Amino acid sequence: MDPRPFDALLLVSFGGPEKPDDVVPFLENVTRGRGIPRERLVEVGEHYFGFGGKSPINDQNRALIAAIEADFAEHGLDLPVYWGNRNWDPYLRETTEAMAADGVRRAVCFVTSAYSSYSGCRQYRENLYEAQLDLPVELAKLRHYYNHPGFVGPFVEQTRDALAAAPEGTHVVFVTHSIPDAMNEASGGPGAQAYLRQHESVARMVAGELGHEAWSLAFCSRSGAPHIPWLDPDINDHLEELSAQGVHSVAVVPIGFISDHMEVIYDLDTEAAQTAKDLGLDFVRVPTPGVHPEFVALVRELVLERAASERGEQPERPALGDLGPWPDHCPAQCCVNAGADLPVLP
Ligand SMILES: CC1=C(CCC(=O)O)c2cc3nc(cc4[nH]c(cc5[nH]c(cc1n2)c(C)c5CCC(=O)O)c(CCC(=O)O)c4C)C(CCC(=O)O)=C3C
Ligand SMILES: [Fe+2]
To answer: Which positions does UniProt annotate for Fe-coproporphyrin III binding (predicted)?
Structure first.
């Protein structure tokens, strides 16, 4: 259990409002310079207000950190765990300042987003670059883990359980966050479409593992202006299509999310569930990894893998499916956002 050269783990996440007064400033943080229409912001604000002005994401990160600390202790891994967000308190910069004051010099970063995209990867690398600027703390971001057994395994297990309790002929709909087509094109490098390919690979793996042939991939949480193309089909349109094709039962598997974010509890559990109800479709939503022990163990395994790699060893790099393990460092033009040229963590 040798974490050297690292002396801390930093959990890096999105952040979310804790109370009604936080909602508008949070949305302003998220959308600064992102060109999101006003109507969309009002609508998304309503989703948060509908849940008491509180996002589930912060409590989920607190639970994940507690589970990681327990797992580290159980395995004799002596590494303090810190937490910093892009859009809400505790902010990344404040956390790295606290880390510097505590004497941390080299921290490994686990980001709560599993796939390649500007929003889920490069933007975090921009944030991490800024967070460590002029501080004596060096940060290292862990590789993407969408195809790690500790991420895929819980989906396989929990989809199997859901199907065992669901009617014969249940169609599996894998769901992730929609992103603009252009963001998908740029993900993983110009024209690489890593975001879509990675999700297709995970969906194929889970369905293949279960020997389940009736499945598809759909998207939720589209925002942006209507004339800009985003990945589709939208989950609600897709449910209508499935119903028209004679499907009478669906299991929705949110492979794009590591825990039950607002997108999951609103866009899937509230909105898509209502669409299914209106169509007379049986609807079950499969859990996200959350604090599943295999997922918690993934964090430790990735930390030790990267530590070994930094020490010049050649650790095993577990990866399922046909895309192979993502490298420790993203390629140079990975997930570039059109128009922006901000410095990033290597
Ligand atoms: C790929 C992706 C992930 C990665 C998956 C992951 O990290 O898990 C993610 C995570 C999240 N996104 C979140 C919330 C929001 N995202 C927004 C806007 C956007 N997201 C986008 C994509 C993604 N987003 C995009 C392309 C936009 C358009 C603006 C832009 O081009 O940047 C907006 C603005 C309003 C709206 O447009 O919806 C909000 C409020 C929360 C918190 C949820 C909670 O509170 O539980 C989380 C974890
Ligand atoms: Fe988002």
So the answer is: 55, 124
